[in-house]
Amino acid sequence: MISFVRRLLHRPVHQLGSLGRAPRSGQRLRNERFASYLASNNRRSLNTDRQDALLAGRRLLRSALMLGLVALAAWVVVESASAIGVF
Question: Is 5 part of a structural domain of the chain?
């Protein structure tokens, strides 16, 4: 039973380096095909300032939405209390 579980949870060893080759001593790992793909498609780099501004805007929108929901709930409670006071 233990060997069955170990076999299920076993992660295979991945080959490092480009195309499964071991890296040469003193050189960084790289994948030539991936670098070629990036160079040929001329992809723009991610503008992190815009990404941070987008995340801050979403956070602000979420806060405003929660404040609106709290204000709506408070209004419902106040109107319900005034309606009960009428009777």
Answer: no
